[in-house]
């Protein structure tokens, strides 16, 4: 009886299986890398805003406290954005005729708020509140980076679920004393040993429960 398959068919099949498996594995690696890339996560992204606001100038150089503009950060889910009247508290006296501030002056005159573009955007199914984070010693720079050094605000971290869970599993490295929570640049701190234990007790933090699904998905 004549052979149905040629003599080299077995070799070709093995080669095809190996190549197919390799391509599948490579495809999975590429997809995972793409999902974690800045193109998807937005890390490093700088958005065009109605006014090119510089945190480096206002916070790093002028020394404004975060809460001057983001007044709701300690009590609400959203940090809050300053209204035009807050901006003009200073700019009615400083750089009053600067062309770049024309949208602020027009906003105040018309009573229409500036439409700032959100730099950090989470999916609708994710719940995040600023208040418990800052009240429990998580510094602004943990998520927002060294804003005091940013001429234009960029997304400093990937904000993936994996990134958030790493902090929830071990919040200790991100804790700051109360007087350093709003520091615009993350300073090196010795938070080991007794000092770390004291901070954990002060804030009443326990890692248990912080990784429950309902903490972020409600």
TrEMBL record:
InterPro entries: Cyt_c7-like, Multihaem_cyt_sf. The chain crosses the membrane at residues 12-35. The keyword Transmembrane helix applies. Residues 52-93, 126-217 form the Cytochrome c7-like domain. Pfam families: Cytochrome_C7. Keywords: Membrane, Transmembrane, Transmembrane helix. It comes from the Bacteria. This is Cytochrome c3 family protein.
